Amino acid sequence: MMKRPPFPRLAETAAFAKGTVTAVHRVKRICTAAAAALLFIGSCSTDREAERTVFAMDTIVTVRAYGEHGSEAVNAAADRLTELEELLSVTAADSDIGRLNASGSAGVSADTVNVVSRALELCESTGGALDITIYPVLREWGFTTGEYRVPADAEIAAALGRTGYRAVSVDGSTVSVPAGYMLDLGSCAKGYASGEMLKKMSELGITSALVNIGGNVHALGSKPDGTDWTVGIADPFSPNELLGKLKISGCAVVTSGGYQRYFTDDDGNVYIHILDPATGRPADSGLASVTVIGGDGLLCDALSTALFVMGRERAEAYWRGNGGFEMILVTDGGRIAVTEKAADSFENVSGMPVEIIYE
Q1: For 38, how many CA atoms within 13 A lie in the half-sphere containing its CB?
Q2: Can you spell out the DSSP letters for 97-158?
Q3: Cα(269)–Cα(223) distance, rounded to whole angstroms?
Q4: CATH fold for the domain made of 87-176
Q5: For the segment 122-177, what is each residue's pLDDT rounded down to a tens digit?
Q6: Which of 179, 240, 268, 285 has the greatest number of C-beta atoms within 10 Å?
Q7: Would the pTM of this model clear 0.90, i.e. be above it?
Q8: Could you name the CATH architecture of 15-78+207-357?
């Protein structure tokens, strides 16, 4: 059991794009370089905007593109999202993951092999703080169905016995798991999808676009006028209010926090949906939210969960040892910690004290 400050109400979107701001070049250079593979060399011939909103991956998705082929681009991006959802969904029986979980072994698409392989690398590098086999435990808590319950210790132990990312095998186009194991790519599928959507738009000549998958924000280049996008980061203690604003270009921004999905028992104990794979229980790491910024959507998505599980000390050590991303940590005690390069682009509007994390 765990006690946390009460959350006013759930907020599905942890970050959202907002208006024009002054460019801050330090983070902009880092993120654009990291996302170079997503960029199309060229410029928009017009600032015309096209936008499309769809429901996919169990959330609202908004795609926005600027340029002559904007309408074609947002439609192509939405089609790519649908394609990936049909492959990676854990709830669809005929998806790659659905077939794998039903039979224990399945021939899968190149996309699924790519996501599973990269996710397994991150499971290893995070020391198991990320584990894509945690699904049996999530089911015990009811987070997969909405039928929330506190499972008995024996039930958690039994479910944990059917987890462990090192038991997953990838051999060519075949992925296999032991009997009773189940994969869930929810910790990285949205991040992978956002990058693939931007690639699809880039192929059509778009150099300025924004994808928002339920709060996973991913930008292609800058705004049409050359200034940075501004992403609002939710206050985990008041999710309908802002913690701060972040200026980005060519970056993904992903936030994970206990406020996004949780339930409370009759004694006031709050159980969040982010589970610690080591215990099978809601992560109680001292963090209220984690925001990860970088050019790789899948990396940002996966690490936002893993770093939350780790807690501040281990998250800082991981950042110093691996690099390739920036982060904003909010502690349960109401303090903000920002890596030094992200600090150049972060505006705190919450009133909470901010500390800088140095290399």
Answers
A1: 31
A2: HHHHHHHSEEE--HHHHHHHHHHHHHHHHTTTSS-TT-HHHHHHHTTTTS------HHHHHH
A3: 44
A4: T-fold (1.10.3980)
A5: 999 999 999 999 999 999 999 998 899 999 999 999 999 999 999 999 999 999 99
A6: 285
A7: no
A8: Roll (3.10)
